[in-house]
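On clarity, I found the account of how folds are encoded harder to follow than it need be. What matters is that the chain and its backbone geometry are given together, residue for residue. For the editor and my fellow referees, an illustration may be useful. For illustration, here is how one protein appears when written out as sequence plus structure tokens:

___
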Amino acid sequence: MLSDCNAAGHSQSLDQTDQLTALAREARLLEIGLESGGEAERQLATDLESALTTAMDAESPSELTQARTAIDLVLGRVLSQGMCLSAELADMEVKGVLGMARMPVLTAVLSAPR
């Protein structure tokens, strides 16, 4: 689980970038949540979703590096806007063509500072 709320320092952001990238690589499904916010916050959530999806879909080292860079940029914006980000990977039962299956789901939620 990753939780970041007004963290200080870029080195901490890099650690969080690595953690979030690793969580995205393990996930098969993604859920993004936004607790309140205006247009800027919705755009930030959209950008976060795009960066995480890119990491989930990365097939080569260069694609993964690009995804990691995108995640780092979004995390920097999260911090600069004073937003909080929590992310958690959990197994969820999903009904598919072959019946029920357990899949790792990454849930990321952006919210105003607490």
Observations:
- The first strand starts at residue 2 and ends at 5.
